[in-house]
Amino acid sequence: MKRKTWMGLAGGLVVLAGSTFLVLRGSKEEIKWRTAKVDKGSITQRITATGTLNALIQVPVGTQVSGVVTSLTADFSSLVKKGQIIGQIDPTPWLTSLKAAQAALQSATDTKANAQIVYQRNLELWKAKLISDNDLDGFKLALQVATANLETARAGLATAKTNLGYCTLKAPVDGVVVARLVDVGQTVAASFATPNVFTIAQDLSKMKVYAAIDEADIGQVRVGQRAFFTVESYPDKQFKGVVSEVQLNPVITNNVVTYNVVMEVDNEPRTTYTPGSDKAAGATMPQPAPAPARKSGVLALGQAGTLEYTTARYMPPGSPVYNGNLALFPGMTADCSIVTNRKENILRVPSAAIRFNPASFVAMDEPKAAAAAPQGGAKPAAGGNVVSRGLVARHEERLWILVNGKPRPVTVKAGVSDGMFTEVSGDNVSEGMVVLTGVGEFKKTASSSSSPLGGGMGGGMHH
Known about the structure:
By secondary structure, this protein is α+β, with helices and mostly antiparallel strands. Among the domains are: about 65-90 and about 175-185 and about 195-200, no CATH class; about 90-165, Helix hairpin bin (Helix Hairpins, Orthogonal Bundle). It is built from five helices and 24 strands. The protein has helices at about 1-25, 90-125, 135-165, 350-355, 455-460, and strands spanning about 35, 40-55, 60, 65-70, 80, 85-90, 170, 175-180, 185-190, 195-200, 205-215, 225-230, 235-255, 255-265, 295, 300, 335-350, 385-390, 390, 400-405, 405-410, 415, 420-425, 435-440. The strands form seven sheets. The protein has a six-stranded antiparallel barrel with strand order 2-11-14-13-12-17. A four-stranded antiparallel sheet has the order 3-10-8-5, with no helix packed on it. A four-stranded antiparallel sheet has the order 7-6-4-9. A hairpin with a 2-residue loop joins strand 12 and strand 13. Helix 2 (about 90-125) runs antiparallel to helix 3 (about 135-165). The two termini are about 15 Å apart.
Protein backbone atom coordinates (compact mmCIF):
# COMPACT_ATOMS: atom_id res chain seq x y z
CA MET A 1 0.00 0.00 0.00
CA LYS A 2 2.80 2.38 0.87
CA ARG A 3 4.70 1.45 -2.29
CA LYS A 4 1.70 2.33 -4.47
CA THR A 5 1.27 5.60 -2.66
CA TRP A 6 4.89 6.60 -3.22
CA MET A 7 4.69 5.56 -6.85
CA GLY A 8 1.56 7.71 -7.32
CA LEU A 9 3.22 10.70 -5.69
CA ALA A 10 6.32 10.27 -7.84
CA GLY A 11 4.22 10.09 -10.99
CA GLY A 12 2.28 13.19 -10.01
CA LEU A 13 5.46 15.15 -9.43
CA VAL A 14 6.80 14.14 -12.83
CA VAL A 15 3.59 15.31 -14.53
CA LEU A 16 3.58 18.54 -12.47
CA ALA A 17 7.21 19.28 -13.32
CA GLY A 18 6.52 18.72 -17.00
CA SER A 19 3.51 21.02 -17.04
CA THR A 20 5.42 23.67 -15.11
CA PHE A 21 8.24 23.50 -17.66
CA LEU A 22 5.75 23.96 -20.48
CA VAL A 23 4.15 26.96 -18.70
CA LEU A 24 7.50 28.63 -18.13
CA ARG A 25 8.67 27.81 -21.61
CA GLY A 26 5.57 28.99 -23.39
CA SER A 27 4.35 31.91 -21.24
CA LYS A 28 6.36 34.55 -23.11
CA GLU A 29 5.22 33.35 -26.48
CA GLU A 30 1.56 33.49 -25.44
CA ILE A 31 1.45 37.26 -24.60
CA LYS A 32 -0.34 39.15 -27.34
CA TRP A 33 0.92 42.73 -27.37
CA ARG A 34 -1.27 45.58 -28.54
CA THR A 35 0.68 48.06 -30.63
CA ALA A 36 0.29 51.42 -32.35
CA LYS A 37 2.41 53.55 -34.63
CA VAL A 38 3.89 56.95 -34.00
CA ASP A 39 2.24 59.30 -36.48
CA LYS A 40 1.95 62.98 -37.26
CA GLY A 41 -1.20 64.94 -36.59
CA SER A 42 -2.77 67.68 -34.51
CA ILE A 43 -3.57 67.78 -30.81
CA THR A 44 -6.05 70.18 -29.23
CA GLN A 45 -5.79 70.51 -25.46
CA ARG A 46 -9.04 71.45 -23.71
CA ILE A 47 -10.43 72.18 -20.28
CA THR A 48 -14.04 71.25 -19.60
CA ALA A 49 -16.37 72.91 -17.13
CA THR A 50 -20.03 73.64 -16.47
CA GLY A 51 -21.32 77.21 -16.58
CA THR A 52 -24.46 79.33 -16.60
CA LEU A 53 -25.64 81.66 -19.37
CA ASN A 54 -26.59 85.25 -18.67
CA ALA A 55 -27.12 88.40 -20.67
CA LEU A 56 -23.96 90.40 -21.26
CA ILE A 57 -25.43 93.30 -19.28
CA GLN A 58 -28.31 92.54 -16.92
CA VAL A 59 -29.61 95.39 -14.76
CA PRO A 60 -31.83 94.93 -11.69
CA VAL A 61 -34.33 97.79 -11.37
CA GLY A 62 -35.23 98.58 -7.77
CA THR A 63 -37.01 101.24 -5.78
CA GLN A 64 -35.35 103.50 -3.25
CA VAL A 65 -38.59 104.42 -1.48
CA SER A 66 -41.12 102.33 0.37
CA GLY A 67 -44.74 102.14 -0.58
CA VAL A 68 -47.51 100.32 -2.39
CA VAL A 69 -47.09 99.47 -6.06
CA THR A 70 -49.96 101.26 -7.78
CA SER A 71 -49.23 100.47 -11.44
CA LEU A 72 -46.90 98.51 -13.71
CA THR A 73 -46.55 99.12 -17.45
CA ALA A 74 -44.07 96.35 -18.33
CA ASP A 75 -44.04 92.61 -17.91
CA PHE A 76 -42.06 89.53 -18.90
CA SER A 77 -40.49 89.85 -22.39
CA SER A 78 -41.45 93.53 -22.72
CA LEU A 79 -39.19 95.60 -24.96
CA VAL A 80 -38.38 98.84 -23.11
CA LYS A 81 -36.44 101.99 -23.91
CA LYS A 82 -34.14 103.93 -21.61
CA GLY A 83 -36.19 106.41 -19.55
CA GLN A 84 -39.51 104.66 -20.25
CA ILE A 85 -41.90 104.56 -17.28
CA ILE A 86 -42.39 100.95 -16.24
CA GLY A 87 -43.95 101.25 -12.77
CA GLN A 88 -45.33 103.55 -10.09
CA ILE A 89 -45.14 103.58 -6.28
CA ASP A 90 -47.94 105.30 -4.34
CA PRO A 91 -46.69 108.91 -4.05
CA THR A 92 -49.16 110.09 -1.37
CA PRO A 93 -46.78 110.04 1.64
CA TRP A 94 -44.00 111.56 -0.44
CA LEU A 95 -46.27 114.35 -1.69
CA THR A 96 -47.02 115.13 1.95
CA SER A 97 -43.29 115.22 2.69
CA LEU A 98 -42.79 117.56 -0.25
CA LYS A 99 -45.43 119.97 1.03
CA ALA A 100 -43.87 119.91 4.47
CA ALA A 101 -40.47 120.65 2.98
CA GLN A 102 -41.89 123.56 0.97
CA ALA A 103 -43.46 124.98 4.11
CA ALA A 104 -40.20 124.59 6.02
CA LEU A 105 -38.37 126.40 3.26
CA GLN A 106 -40.83 129.29 3.31
CA SER A 107 -40.50 129.57 7.07
CA ALA A 108 -36.71 129.52 6.90
CA THR A 109 -36.77 132.14 4.15
CA ASP A 110 -38.94 134.49 6.23
CA THR A 111 -36.82 133.91 9.32
CA LYS A 112 -33.64 134.81 7.49
CA ALA A 113 -35.22 137.91 5.97
CA ASN A 114 -36.29 139.09 9.42
CA ALA A 115 -32.87 138.32 10.90
CA GLN A 116 -31.27 140.31 8.07
CA ILE A 117 -33.45 143.36 8.78
CA VAL A 118 -32.79 143.18 12.54
CA TYR A 119 -29.07 142.90 11.98
CA GLN A 120 -28.95 145.86 9.58
CA ARG A 121 -30.98 147.99 12.00
CA ASN A 122 -28.73 147.18 14.95
CA LEU A 123 -25.64 147.67 12.81
CA GLU A 124 -26.64 151.33 12.36
CA LEU A 125 -27.20 151.66 16.11
CA TRP A 126 -23.76 150.14 16.75
CA LYS A 127 -22.16 152.62 14.39
CA ALA A 128 -23.85 155.41 16.41
CA LYS A 129 -22.36 153.90 19.56
CA LEU A 130 -25.84 153.20 20.90
CA ILE A 131 -25.35 149.42 21.44
CA SER A 132 -22.39 147.41 22.54
CA ASP A 133 -20.25 145.03 20.51
CA ASN A 134 -21.75 142.06 22.35
CA ASP A 135 -25.27 143.10 21.34
CA LEU A 136 -24.25 143.37 17.67
CA ASP A 137 -22.53 139.96 17.78
CA GLY A 138 -25.76 138.39 19.04
CA PHE A 139 -27.76 139.80 16.11
CA LYS A 140 -25.03 138.69 13.70
CA LEU A 141 -25.12 135.16 15.10
CA ALA A 142 -28.90 135.04 14.74
CA LEU A 143 -28.52 135.99 11.06
CA GLN A 144 -25.97 133.23 10.52
CA VAL A 145 -28.23 130.64 12.16
CA ALA A 146 -31.17 131.74 10.01
CA THR A 147 -29.00 131.44 6.89
CA ALA A 148 -27.94 127.92 7.84
CA ASN A 149 -31.55 126.94 8.55
CA LEU A 150 -32.52 128.22 5.12
CA GLU A 151 -29.88 126.02 3.44
CA THR A 152 -31.14 123.04 5.45
CA ALA A 153 -34.70 123.74 4.32
CA ARG A 154 -33.57 123.94 0.72
CA ALA A 155 -31.80 120.57 1.04
CA GLY A 156 -34.90 119.08 2.64
CA LEU A 157 -37.01 120.27 -0.29
CA ALA A 158 -34.55 118.76 -2.79
CA THR A 159 -34.66 115.46 -0.89
CA ALA A 160 -38.45 115.46 -0.89
CA LYS A 161 -38.52 116.09 -4.65
CA THR A 162 -36.00 113.31 -5.23
CA ASN A 163 -37.98 110.82 -3.14
CA LEU A 164 -41.13 111.77 -5.02
CA GLY A 165 -39.29 111.15 -8.28
CA TYR A 166 -38.24 107.69 -7.04
CA CYS A 167 -41.93 106.78 -6.93
CA THR A 168 -41.84 106.63 -10.74
CA LEU A 169 -39.82 103.62 -11.96
CA LYS A 170 -38.00 104.13 -15.26
CA ALA A 171 -35.99 101.75 -17.41
CA PRO A 172 -32.27 102.53 -16.98
CA VAL A 173 -31.28 100.93 -20.32
CA ASP A 174 -32.78 99.71 -23.57
CA GLY A 175 -33.51 96.01 -23.35
CA VAL A 176 -35.86 93.15 -22.58
CA VAL A 177 -37.59 92.55 -19.26
CA VAL A 178 -36.53 89.08 -18.17
CA ALA A 179 -38.08 89.18 -14.69
CA ARG A 180 -40.90 90.96 -12.90
CA LEU A 181 -40.73 90.48 -9.14
CA VAL A 182 -43.75 92.40 -7.78
CA ASP A 183 -47.46 92.80 -8.47
CA VAL A 184 -49.78 95.77 -8.32
CA GLY A 185 -50.94 96.25 -4.74
CA GLN A 186 -47.80 94.77 -3.23
CA THR A 187 -45.94 96.81 -0.61
CA VAL A 188 -42.21 97.22 -1.05
CA ALA A 189 -40.00 98.23 1.87
CA ALA A 190 -36.72 99.98 1.18
CA SER A 191 -35.68 100.54 4.77
CA PHE A 192 -32.66 98.18 4.87
CA ALA A 193 -32.13 97.14 1.24
CA THR A 194 -33.29 98.15 -2.22
CA PRO A 195 -36.08 95.76 -3.31
CA ASN A 196 -35.87 94.73 -6.96
CA VAL A 197 -38.96 95.21 -9.12
CA PHE A 198 -37.68 94.25 -12.60
CA THR A 199 -34.61 92.71 -14.19
CA ILE A 200 -33.73 94.03 -17.64
CA ALA A 201 -31.31 92.38 -20.07
CA GLN A 202 -29.78 95.09 -22.21
CA ASP A 203 -29.01 92.97 -25.28
CA LEU A 204 -29.89 89.30 -25.70
CA SER A 205 -27.94 89.08 -28.95
CA LYS A 206 -24.78 89.02 -26.80
CA MET A 207 -24.52 86.49 -23.98
CA LYS A 208 -21.90 85.49 -21.44
CA VAL A 209 -21.14 82.21 -19.71
CA TYR A 210 -19.92 82.03 -16.11
CA ALA A 211 -17.92 78.83 -15.61
CA ALA A 212 -16.14 77.58 -12.48
CA ILE A 213 -12.63 76.34 -13.33
CA ASP A 214 -10.72 74.14 -10.89
CA GLU A 215 -7.52 75.57 -9.42
CA ALA A 216 -5.55 72.76 -11.08
CA ASP A 217 -6.61 74.04 -14.53
CA ILE A 218 -6.94 77.80 -14.06
CA GLY A 219 -3.26 78.37 -14.84
CA GLN A 220 -3.88 77.27 -18.44
CA VAL A 221 -6.77 79.69 -19.07
CA ARG A 222 -6.02 83.00 -20.81
CA VAL A 223 -8.15 85.86 -22.08
CA GLY A 224 -8.76 85.47 -25.81
CA GLN A 225 -8.81 81.66 -25.88
CA ARG A 226 -11.53 80.00 -27.93
CA ALA A 227 -14.39 78.32 -26.13
CA PHE A 228 -17.18 75.99 -27.20
CA PHE A 229 -20.28 74.90 -25.33
CA THR A 230 -23.58 73.10 -25.73
CA VAL A 231 -26.91 73.45 -23.95
CA GLU A 232 -29.53 70.82 -23.28
CA SER A 233 -32.07 72.50 -25.57
CA TYR A 234 -29.76 72.01 -28.57
CA PRO A 235 -27.55 68.99 -27.79
CA ASP A 236 -26.34 68.73 -31.41
CA LYS A 237 -25.50 72.42 -31.73
CA GLN A 238 -22.08 73.72 -30.69
CA PHE A 239 -21.91 77.43 -29.85
CA LYS A 240 -18.66 79.36 -30.18
CA GLY A 241 -17.32 81.94 -27.77
CA VAL A 242 -14.15 83.53 -26.44
CA VAL A 243 -12.71 83.90 -22.93
CA SER A 244 -13.16 87.56 -21.97
CA GLU A 245 -12.35 87.55 -18.25
CA VAL A 246 -10.45 85.41 -15.74
CA GLN A 247 -11.53 86.50 -12.28
CA LEU A 248 -8.93 86.41 -9.50
CA ASN A 249 -11.40 86.02 -6.66
CA PRO A 250 -11.33 82.38 -5.43
CA VAL A 251 -14.58 80.56 -4.66
CA ILE A 252 -14.12 77.97 -1.90
CA THR A 253 -16.82 75.31 -1.52
CA ASN A 254 -16.21 72.31 0.74
CA ASN A 255 -12.44 73.01 0.61
CA VAL A 256 -12.55 72.94 -3.22
CA VAL A 257 -11.09 76.08 -4.81
CA THR A 258 -12.45 77.30 -8.16
CA TYR A 259 -12.19 80.51 -10.16
CA ASN A 260 -14.88 82.12 -12.28
CA VAL A 261 -14.13 82.49 -15.97
CA VAL A 262 -16.36 84.58 -18.24
CA MET A 263 -16.85 83.66 -21.90
CA GLU A 264 -18.70 85.88 -24.37
CA VAL A 265 -20.79 84.40 -27.18
CA ASP A 266 -22.98 85.73 -29.96
CA ASN A 267 -26.55 84.53 -29.67
CA GLU A 268 -27.92 82.79 -32.74
CA PRO A 269 -31.41 82.32 -34.21
CA ARG A 270 -33.21 79.17 -33.22
CA THR A 271 -32.76 76.11 -35.40
CA THR A 272 -36.49 76.28 -36.18
CA TYR A 273 -37.89 79.74 -36.79
CA THR A 274 -40.69 81.52 -38.52
CA PRO A 275 -40.01 83.02 -41.99
CA GLY A 276 -38.10 86.26 -41.73
CA SER A 277 -36.96 85.78 -38.12
CA ASP A 278 -33.52 84.61 -39.29
CA LYS A 279 -32.81 88.20 -40.23
CA ALA A 280 -33.21 89.37 -36.67
CA ALA A 281 -30.02 90.29 -34.85
CA GLY A 282 -31.53 90.36 -31.39
CA ALA A 283 -34.40 91.55 -29.28
CA THR A 284 -34.53 94.94 -31.00
CA MET A 285 -35.09 93.49 -34.47
CA PRO A 286 -36.96 95.59 -37.06
CA GLN A 287 -40.69 94.95 -36.95
CA PRO A 288 -42.85 94.38 -40.04
CA ALA A 289 -45.94 96.44 -40.70
CA PRO A 290 -48.57 96.17 -37.97
CA ALA A 291 -51.21 93.55 -38.52
CA PRO A 292 -54.90 94.27 -37.94
CA ALA A 293 -55.65 94.20 -34.24
CA ARG A 294 -57.64 91.28 -32.85
CA LYS A 295 -59.18 90.69 -29.50
CA SER A 296 -59.11 87.73 -27.17
CA GLY A 297 -61.38 88.50 -24.29
CA VAL A 298 -60.45 91.99 -23.11
CA LEU A 299 -56.82 91.86 -24.29
CA ALA A 300 -55.77 93.57 -27.51
CA LEU A 301 -53.01 91.75 -29.30
CA GLY A 302 -49.60 93.21 -29.96
CA GLN A 303 -47.94 94.14 -33.24
CA ALA A 304 -46.86 91.60 -35.83
CA GLY A 305 -43.67 89.90 -34.71
CA THR A 306 -44.64 89.99 -31.05
CA LEU A 307 -46.55 87.37 -29.06
CA GLU A 308 -49.93 87.08 -30.80
CA TYR A 309 -51.87 86.21 -27.66
CA THR A 310 -50.06 87.90 -24.81
CA THR A 311 -51.05 86.91 -21.28
CA ALA A 312 -49.03 89.66 -19.60
CA ARG A 313 -51.19 91.33 -16.97
CA TYR A 314 -49.42 94.69 -16.88
CA MET A 315 -48.46 95.23 -20.52
CA PRO A 316 -50.44 97.90 -22.39
CA PRO A 317 -52.11 96.61 -25.57
CA GLY A 318 -49.90 96.96 -28.62
CA SER A 319 -46.65 97.10 -26.64
CA PRO A 320 -43.66 95.52 -28.37
CA VAL A 321 -42.72 92.09 -27.03
CA TYR A 322 -39.60 90.01 -27.57
CA ASN A 323 -40.75 86.95 -29.51
CA GLY A 324 -37.96 84.62 -28.36
CA ASN A 325 -36.40 84.07 -31.76
CA LEU A 326 -32.87 83.65 -30.35
CA ALA A 327 -31.61 80.25 -29.22
CA LEU A 328 -29.89 81.06 -25.94
CA PHE A 329 -31.88 82.08 -22.86
CA PRO A 330 -30.55 83.52 -19.59
CA GLY A 331 -30.08 80.82 -16.95
CA MET A 332 -29.34 77.94 -19.32
CA THR A 333 -26.68 75.44 -18.23
CA ALA A 334 -23.71 75.29 -20.59
CA ASP A 335 -21.25 72.41 -20.91
CA CYS A 336 -18.10 74.34 -21.79
CA SER A 337 -14.83 73.39 -23.43
CA ILE A 338 -11.96 75.92 -23.47
CA VAL A 339 -9.15 75.36 -25.98
CA THR A 340 -5.94 76.04 -24.03
CA ASN A 341 -3.41 74.77 -26.59
CA ARG A 342 -3.27 73.38 -30.12
CA LYS A 343 -0.35 71.99 -32.11
CA GLU A 344 -0.31 70.94 -35.75
CA ASN A 345 1.81 68.36 -37.59
CA ILE A 346 3.56 66.94 -34.53
CA LEU A 347 4.61 63.42 -33.56
CA ARG A 348 1.99 61.80 -31.39
CA VAL A 349 1.09 58.44 -29.88
CA PRO A 350 -2.03 57.13 -28.16
CA SER A 351 -1.91 58.24 -24.53
CA ALA A 352 -2.06 54.57 -23.47
CA ALA A 353 1.45 54.11 -24.89
CA ILE A 354 2.86 56.65 -22.43
CA ARG A 355 1.07 55.06 -19.47
CA PHE A 356 1.82 51.43 -20.33
CA ASN A 357 4.39 49.43 -18.35
CA PRO A 358 5.09 45.80 -19.38
CA ALA A 359 6.63 44.99 -16.01
CA SER A 360 3.25 43.71 -14.87
CA PHE A 361 3.36 40.92 -17.45
CA VAL A 362 7.00 39.90 -17.98
CA ALA A 363 10.15 39.97 -15.89
CA MET A 364 12.54 42.57 -17.31
CA ASP A 365 16.18 41.75 -18.03
CA GLU A 366 17.33 45.23 -17.04
CA PRO A 367 16.32 46.11 -13.49
CA LYS A 368 16.51 49.81 -14.37
CA ALA A 369 14.20 49.47 -17.31
CA ALA A 370 11.09 48.80 -15.26
CA ALA A 371 9.97 47.77 -11.84
CA ALA A 372 9.80 44.09 -11.08
CA ALA A 373 6.39 42.55 -11.54
CA PRO A 374 4.44 42.22 -8.29
CA GLN A 375 4.19 38.68 -6.98
CA GLY A 376 1.11 37.50 -5.20
CA GLY A 377 -0.27 40.43 -3.23
CA ALA A 378 3.06 42.17 -2.73
CA LYS A 379 3.47 45.82 -3.68
CA PRO A 380 5.56 46.74 -6.72
CA ALA A 381 9.18 47.67 -6.22
CA ALA A 382 10.15 51.29 -5.63
CA GLY A 383 9.97 53.37 -8.81
CA GLY A 384 7.27 51.26 -10.44
CA ASN A 385 3.94 53.11 -10.50
CA VAL A 386 1.98 50.08 -11.66
CA VAL A 387 -1.68 50.16 -10.72
CA SER A 388 -3.44 47.48 -12.78
CA ARG A 389 -3.38 45.91 -16.24
CA GLY A 390 -0.02 47.49 -16.98
CA LEU A 391 -1.09 51.12 -16.48
CA VAL A 392 0.89 53.54 -14.35
CA ALA A 393 -0.44 56.41 -12.28
CA ARG A 394 1.67 59.09 -13.97
CA HIS A 395 3.48 59.71 -17.23
CA GLU A 396 6.92 58.08 -17.15
CA GLU A 397 7.90 59.83 -20.42
CA ARG A 398 9.04 56.64 -22.14
CA LEU A 399 7.69 54.32 -24.76
CA TRP A 400 8.12 50.57 -25.11
CA ILE A 401 9.10 48.77 -28.30
CA LEU A 402 9.77 45.10 -29.08
CA VAL A 403 13.38 44.07 -29.72
CA ASN A 404 13.77 40.36 -30.50
CA GLY A 405 10.34 39.80 -28.99
CA LYS A 406 11.20 41.53 -25.69
CA PRO A 407 9.99 44.97 -24.49
CA ARG A 408 12.65 47.66 -24.46
CA PRO A 409 12.20 51.26 -23.21
CA VAL A 410 12.68 54.33 -25.41
CA THR A 411 13.11 57.65 -23.63
CA VAL A 412 10.93 60.46 -25.01
CA LYS A 413 9.64 63.84 -23.93
CA ALA A 414 5.86 64.07 -23.54
CA GLY A 415 4.09 67.29 -24.52
CA VAL A 416 0.48 68.38 -24.82
CA SER A 417 -2.30 65.84 -24.61
CA ASP A 418 -6.00 65.77 -25.44
CA GLY A 419 -6.65 62.54 -23.55
CA MET A 420 -6.58 60.33 -26.63
CA PHE A 421 -3.19 61.35 -28.05
CA THR A 422 -0.02 62.73 -26.48
CA GLU A 423 2.76 64.68 -28.17
CA VAL A 424 6.17 62.98 -28.06
CA SER A 425 9.59 64.21 -29.11
CA GLY A 426 13.22 63.17 -28.80
CA ASP A 427 16.09 61.67 -30.75
CA ASN A 428 14.88 58.11 -30.20
CA VAL A 429 11.40 58.49 -31.65
CA SER A 430 10.40 58.79 -35.30
CA GLU A 431 7.28 58.61 -37.42
CA GLY A 432 6.12 55.06 -38.09
CA MET A 433 7.77 53.55 -34.99
CA VAL A 434 5.71 50.69 -33.56
CA VAL A 435 5.17 51.05 -29.80
CA LEU A 436 3.37 48.96 -27.20
CA THR A 437 0.06 50.18 -25.84
CA GLY A 438 -1.09 47.13 -23.85
CA VAL A 439 -1.70 43.39 -24.02
CA GLY A 440 -4.47 41.29 -25.47
CA GLU A 441 -6.12 38.30 -23.83
CA PHE A 442 -3.88 35.58 -22.36
CA LYS A 443 -4.23 31.92 -23.26
CA LYS A 444 -5.23 29.61 -20.41
CA THR A 445 -1.68 28.89 -19.18
CA ALA A 446 -0.68 32.52 -19.16
CA SER A 447 -3.97 33.74 -17.67
CA SER A 448 -3.84 31.48 -14.62
CA SER A 449 -2.52 32.52 -11.22
CA SER A 450 0.62 34.65 -11.12
CA SER A 451 2.40 31.61 -9.63
CA PRO A 452 2.84 28.80 -12.24
CA LEU A 453 2.23 26.28 -9.47
CA GLY A 454 -0.95 27.94 -8.25
CA GLY A 455 -3.47 25.98 -10.37
CA GLY A 456 -1.61 22.65 -10.62
CA MET A 457 -1.01 22.07 -6.95
CA GLY A 458 -4.67 22.31 -6.11
CA GLY A 459 -5.66 19.45 -8.46
CA GLY A 460 -2.52 17.26 -8.35
CA MET A 461 -2.51 16.46 -4.66
CA HIS A 462 -6.04 15.10 -4.43
CA HIS A 463 -6.90 11.49 -5.07
